[in-house]
Design brief:
Blueprint (H helix, E strand, L loop, with lengths): L2 H11 L3 E3 L5 H13 L4 E5 L5 H12 L4 E5 L4 H10 L4 E3 L4 H10 L3 E5 L2 H9 L4 E5 L7 H15 L3 E5 L3 H7 L3 E5 L2 E6 L1 H5 L2
Parallel strand pairs: 1-2, 2-3, 4-5, 5-6, 6-7
Antiparallel strand pairs: 8-9
Helix pairs in contact: 2-3, 3-4, 4-5, 7-8
Length: about 200
Amino acid sequence: MTRTDILASIEASALVAIVRGNFQPEQVLEIGHALVRGGISAIEVTLNSDRALEAISLLEQNLGDNVLIGAGTVVAPDQVDEAVAAGARYLIAPGLDSACVERARRRGVPFIPGVFTATEIGLALANSPSLLLLDEPLAGMSPRERVETVKLLRSISKGRTAIIIDHDMDSLFELVEHVTVLQEGRVLVEGPPEQIKSN
């Protein structure tokens, strides 16, 4: 599966299940089986979990034909190498580290940084990402700032996938082509903005 195929699969899944905590790798495999039965097609194991690399390897060996296995909380270049060696096919980070981006690029693995501030978004764009994860980019802004930021986000999203997590639905409707509304981890509704507005 190419880097482009992986990004397309993550985008199509609309939901990445995150496994974090003090689980034995065998327990993570059981969780993985349950997630697949529930229709999940992308699973992330955070590297700050116990024995995360072993869990990633076990998931990839047993479920890798049916689900994308990735590593989360990737914050150092060595972790990029370790996660890829364990079988991770994509990497998610809580922020942007240029050395991690470059290492992942050399390894041919998508690196998805979570960005929050305008500075982080700018730094992420300097690394030419195919996919951006924007965590509440409109939070705490005045109405005027929101309008300007929506214009900016619309322009920077061209030619790339942007996954935006936010509570400002009116602004999101101006930005996105597809909306997934979650409540407590359950999908309530999903579809184009027009459909969601009328629901």
